Structures are given as structure tokens and as C-alpha cells.
Amino acid sequence: MQEFKFAGMDGIDEVTISSIHIKVGQEVKKGDTLFDVEADKAADSINSPFDGKVSKINFKSGDTIKTGDIIVEFGGSNAQASDVIDKELKSESETQKVQSESAKETKTNDKVLATPLARRIARELGIDIVTIKGTGPNGRVLKTDIENSSSSSTVATESKQVSHTIPTSSSQAINVAKMESFGPIEHMPLTAIRKSVANAMVTSMYTAPHVTLMLDVDATNLINLRATLKQEAIKAENGAIKLTFMPFFIKAVAKALAEDSFKLLNSTFNLPGNEILVKKYYNIGMAADTDKGLLVPVVKSADKLAIFDIAKEVNQLADKARKGTLSAAEMQGGTFTITNFGSAGLKVGTPIINYPEVAILGIGILESKAVLVNDNIAFHNFFPLSISIDHRVIDGAPAGHFMQRVKYLLENPALLLLD
């Protein structure tokens, strides 16, 4: 008899089964898909780590499984315990690394059963893990227990330590009975994605002091260039690409971030380590509104990609976001995020930073304005842009200079085709 324990995936300790591809008595091969799962904003699959015959399935569709849970039992001699999938090896390696870091914690904390990821998040938020009630096996504290906790977090300011409570999306008491006394109420259970978005927004707003700056970009040259390239992009030899404005915004942002003057906008504020982490890679997230909620797929190494290559990535990731098939890996590693609220017909907005990033760019709806050109009035189209910054890291002037640089690149879009 061989037990298959869920070992987590991509740093995720808890997933929900969306469909099951096996049945008791079935012979499976190593690599065969056992379950389709969803975790927070990601969809993925759990594959068999070895050959064997399914003797027992311990969970059903819709159940939540956590790291360490025995999800399938195999009978027969084909199952080899040493045969583990690459994903599990990677997860175990990462777990051991975090456990090594956790060994530095106090003996009191070491007595608490907790996943390494939960310990790390607790440390980052300044939460005493001893005060958290775990919902995992044998009372183990999970990542979600930390996120859902209403415990006080101690965070430091630049001059001194200040203790205050960071609310989570589940920490406010609501008198449901009183609301129902006024009239009927529809109870809509929170989806995993909505809960994840809610907690992320609260964490960002109560951690990073937001400041938002705005300006307009003359889109005349960009519109003309896109119209020209669009005819080339749709040709079969170029991949029949749908060319929107988003690839140009991604390229302009990545190009600007790569300049040394603006490196702080591609960083993370690490107060516990008394440092700012400046990333030397440029992975641009693009907020996508889907039926399941807000998702942020990431275009990796955008500074090294040509416009058509970025467009391919944008199209593929957007399609997966709509279908709900994005993997966790496709939404990780972002260094800067762009959100297009112009697609909803909005002119300007004050977007919330995708924490732990330190800035987010918002794009408003394209609109026509009268401008004076050679003493004559002409009508040009403009994109309103807004940037929200983490004021702990970035001051208003550098952020303004960054916006001016992005504006210059978009108003002279031929520069985006040079590399």
C-alpha cells in the first residue's frame, strides 16, 4: 500500500478540488492527472508521482486539501516511494530552506505546529504565531490561518517601532440578523479568488502608504503606429496576432524601469531586513477582470521582448484568465503592475498597489481633446495615466519623472521598437 500525500504546489498549502480524473480500481501511470484543483487565483493539476492501482480516494470534488493530507492510496507493487514528481521535489526543497530560516525563531514558536509558509508570513506581518489557532491537521497553523487572523501585527516605521492592528477582510464583525430585520438578503459565499483579492487589498492599503499622481498622454503617434503594425501582426507568418495597446504600455513601462534613475519603482520594501530589494528583472503584471474576479497574469522579462512577442503573451494570458486556466506560476514573480480601467469606460482612478510591489500604473479611457498645433486647433486623442506609489520607498518627484519618461516613450512609440 502506498499513500500519496499532497506536498503543496508553487508555495501554496491549500487547494480546492474542481474535478477528479480517476476512480477506485483504476491503473494509473506516473504523470497521469489525478485531480484538477484551484488555489486562490490559480488553476492547476495534481499528477500521479508513480505507477499504481487506485485503492482509495480520500476526497471528492469541491473538497479542500492541505499540505500533508493523504489524497489517494495505491495498492500493488508498482508504486515506488522514491518516484516523486519534480513539483514535489521543488516544493520540498523550498520547504527545507524556509524551515532552516525558521530555526532561528524562539523555542516557544518552534513548539507550534505550522507550515513554513505560515511562519514566514507571520514573521513578515509581525504576528505572534503562538496566538493563532491552526485549522490544519493536528492543529497545524496554515497560511490561511495567518491571513484570516484578526491578531495585532507589529510593524516598524522608519524612525521607531509602532504597534497597530492590520485588519483583514474577515476581521470586522457584521450583525447579519439586524440587516435581515430590514428586508431580505441574498447570501453569496465568498469564492477563493474573491477572498484572496479582499485580503490582498487590505494588506496593501494598511501596509503601504499610497500616493497617486496623474497626467495625460497624447496618443496620436501611438494610434498611428499601432494601425500600421496591426496589419502586419494579423498576417499568418507573424502568428495572426491581435495587437492591442497593452503591449505598448508594457514595453514602455519595462523600458523605463530598466533605467537606473527609476530602479526604485521596481523594488520591494523589506523593513524587517532594513533594506530595499531592487529587482534586476522586469516582469509586468496586467490586471484582468474575469467572471471569477480580479486576476493578474505576468509577462516575464518584458524588457527583452519585442512588441509582437509581448502581444502574443498578452493574448495567451488574457485567454487563460477568461477561461480560468491560469497556473500559479503565470501569476507569480511580478515586479510592477498595469491596470486598464479605461476598458470599463473610466477616465481616471487611484489603483491599489499589488503588494509587495511598490507601484501600479492605471490607464484611463481614450478621449479626444482640442490642442493648438501651429496656431491651429486640432483634435488629438489622449490616454489619462495614473500611478499609485508606496511613499515609504518612492517620493513624488521621482514618480513624476518616471511618468514623464513613460509619457515620452508612448508619445514617441518608434523608440519601443528599437530593442
TrEMBL record:
User: In the Enzyme Commission scheme, what number(s) does this protein have?
Assistant: 2.3.1.-
Q: Name one Pfam family in it.
A: Biotin_lipoyl
| Peripheral subunit-binding (PSBD) domain location | 113-150
Q: What GO molecular function terms would the record report?
A: acetyltransferase activity; lipoic acid binding
A single Gene Ontology CC term: cytoplasm
Q: Which UniProt keywords apply?
A: Acyltransferase, Lipoyl, Transferase
Domain Lipoyl-binding stretches = 1-75
Return the InterPro entries for the record.
Answer: 2-oxoA_DH_lipoyl-BS (IPR003016), 2-oxoacid_DH_actylTfrase (IPR001078), 2-oxoacid_DH_E2_comp (IPR050743), Biotin_lipoyl (IPR000089), CAT-like_dom_sf (IPR023213), E3-bd_dom_sf (IPR036625), PSBD (IPR004167), Single_hybrid_motif (IPR011053)
Tell me the CDD domains matching this sequence.
lipoyl_domain
Query: Which PROSITE patterns does its entry note?
Result: BIOTINYL_LIPOYL (PS50968), LIPOYL (PS00189), PSBD (PS51826)
- Any keyword Acyltransferase? yes
Asked whether the UniProt record includes Transferase among its keywords, one would answer yes
State its cofactor. Answer: (R)-lipoate
Concerning SUPFAM superfamilies, the annotation shows: CoA-dependent acyltransferases (SSF52777), Peripheral subunit-binding domain of 2-oxo acid dehydrogenase complex (SSF47005), Single hybrid motif (SSF51230)
Family, similarity comment: Belongs to the 2-oxoacid dehydrogenase family.
- Name the chain's protein: Dihydrolipoamide acetyltransferase component of pyruvate dehydrogenase complex
